[in-house]
């Protein structure tokens, strides 16, 4: 019984270290820099920055004017969010990046058509 308890404690400690390591390595990026999430942002990309799965994008904007919707490539290209897509609309949203391509658009007032959309590739 003592051996089983020791193994369980060891596994718990190791899992905690793994989670801590992943959290400690994550970086946070303010989308658009000081200007925030605005129209004509599609060219925003911090120069020389590499994004990783688990990094956080912070979207700051006026929620009366904009939102942030995570979409797929088709949604990005057509500026159409799929039915049931989650709309971030707090004006200060944090979104974790997944490995691969991450697509974001604004679905209000035709903003996406005005290049209020970005794609971030995370390693």
Automatic annotation (TrEMBL):
Residues 27-123 form the Phytocyanin domain. It comes from the Eukaryota. Pfam families: Cu_bind_like. CDD domains: Plantacyanin. The keyword Cytoplasm does not apply. InterPro entries: Cupredoxin, Phytocyanin-like, Phytocyanin_dom, Plantacyanin. GO terms for cellular component: plasma membrane. Residues 1-26 form the signal peptide. One of its GO terms (molecular function) is metal ion binding. Keywords: Copper, Disulfide bond, Metal-binding, Signal. This is Basic blue protein. It comes from Quercus suber.
């Amino acid at each position: 019984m003592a051996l089983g308890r020791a193994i369980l404690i060891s596994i718990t400690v190791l899992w905690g270290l793994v989670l801590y390591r992943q959290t400690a390595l994550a970086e946070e990026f303010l989308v658009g820099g000081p200007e925030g999430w605005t129209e004509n942002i599609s060219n925003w990309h911090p120069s020389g920055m590499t994004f990783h799965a688990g990094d956080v994008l912070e979207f700051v904007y006026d929620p009366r004017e904009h939102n942030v919707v995570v979409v797929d490539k088709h949604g990005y290209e057509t500026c159409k969010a799929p039915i049931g897509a989650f709309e971030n609309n707090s004006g200060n949203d944090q979104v974790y990046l997944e490995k691969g391509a991450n697509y974001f658009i604004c679905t209000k007032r035709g903003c996406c058509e005005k290049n209020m959309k970005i794609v971030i590739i995370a390693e």
